[in-house]
Amino acid sequence: MKHILYELLVFLRLKKRTIPNDNEILGYFRMFYLFLSAGMPVKESIEQCKVIVSPLMQPITKKILSKLDNGDDLELAMQETKVFPKYITDLVEAGRKNGSLKDIALEIIFFLEQKIDIKRKVNSGLFIVKIMSFILVVLIIAAFIVINKFKEILNDTKGELPTFTKLVLDFGDIVSNNWYIILFFVIVLLISFKILKKQYREKFDSLMFKVPIYGPIYKNLSFYRMSRIMSLTVQTGIAVEDSFEYASLAVDNIYFKNFINKIIYNLNKKDMLFKDAIEKANEEYKLLDNSFILILVAGRKSGNVKVALDSCAADYKRKLISLLSTVSDKVITPALFIIFIIVAIIYAAIMLPINNIWSSAQMMSK
Asked: For residue range 112-170, what is the model confidence (pLDDT) as tens digits?
């Protein structure tokens, strides 16, 4: 919630952005990788980055250099900035210790590029949902304004108003006369929702996978990220069993995190086989496709775990893009139907008495 409010204030230019985004972190790692590739030592590479990176990353780079001067390792210096996710700093640590920091930096670059690309596609795919929601809100507000404008005219007409028009006008009166009560009720609902969400976080997070239209998108996006992070960690020489821990660190959804942690718990049992550990967790949480389990087990058996994980990530990405391409078709039809109903109500409420007035005027003229 705080992150959403922060982004909104930045978008409205009411607050200056102080937290680097994924694009700026990506730019940082690109420069870092290029200087490492040119043969520069780690500290000198970071010193060069200080001049080139974005303005928001410059003070962060200075802080990293200060920590390095004090004898801290690179990953600890990066952790102190509280900008880099823990799974990234853990990967940097693994790369530093086994002498493959340059390769790790390249893998992090690829991961961030894919993350940004997917985020852009998701935002683009859901843009129509935001637009239609905005149109509906504007239309509902406009409906009350139009009805209230015609109210005095309709009340001054001779004769009885149609029952339907009376109902619409009465409803408009209720809303306009009690708007503060309605607003209070909405605020109470939002606060109650926030409190309940904290108390039942796992239950609420589990619903994210079941919401119509958005649920399948969220599920494929979650497993795409998990596959990519596991692939990234396996690339550094970390065992696939341990890669689940890094995937758990990168997850915000409590239900999904608990699912991964359940896999980790099962893997730590001495008598539990790799495949059984995942299947047992999946029986409880019902999130994974059997194909992912079979492909991962086959990749582990053949020694091609990274290839298997990359294949799964690519498959989840294809499914995600396919789902996003159908969002507009699933949203536009019901949204247009609601818009049609609102317009029809306004038209009927206003035009019925106007037609009566017109008919009465014609009869009087005769």
From this structure: 888 888 888 877 777 777 787 787 777 777 776 776 666 666 666 555 666 777 777 77
Q: What is the pLDDT of residues 333-365, one digit of tens each?
A: 777 787 778 777 777 777 776 676 666 656 666
Task: Compute the average pLDDT of residues 253-274.
Answer: 92
Q: What is the dihedral of CA 299, 300, 302, 305, to 10 degrees?
A: 50
CA distance 128 to 123: 9
CB atoms within 10 A of CB 257: 17
User: What is the number of other CB atoms lying within 10 angstroms of the CB of residue 49?
Assistant: 23
Under a CB-based contact definition with an 8 Å cutoff, are residues 103 and 235 in contact? yes
DSSP code of residue 162: P
Two tokens, residue 163: 């029952």
Q: The tokens of 26 are what?
A: 């990506």
**Mean pLDDT along residues 322-331:** 76
The pLDDT of residue 136: 75
Residue 64 · residue 77 · CB < 8 Å: yes
What is the number of alpha carbons within 13 Å of residue 133 lying toward its C-beta? 5
Helix (H, G, I), strand (E, B) or coil at 135: helix
**N-to-C CA span, the chain:** 66
The model's confidence at residue 5, banded by pLDDT at 50, 70 and 90, is: low
Using alpha carbons, select from 89, 101, 93, 112 the residue that is nearest to residue 40.
101
C-alpha to C-alpha distance for 103 and 90, rounded to whole angstroms: 14
User: What token pair was written down for 180?
Assistant: 């503060």
Q: Cα–Cα–Cα angle for 289, 291, 293, nearest 5°?
A: 80
SS3 of residue 41 by DSSP: coil
- Name which of 329, 325, 321 is nearest 118 in CA terms: 321
Q: Where are the domains of the chain?
A: 2-100, 126-366
Helix axes 163-177, 305-365, angle to 10 degrees: 120
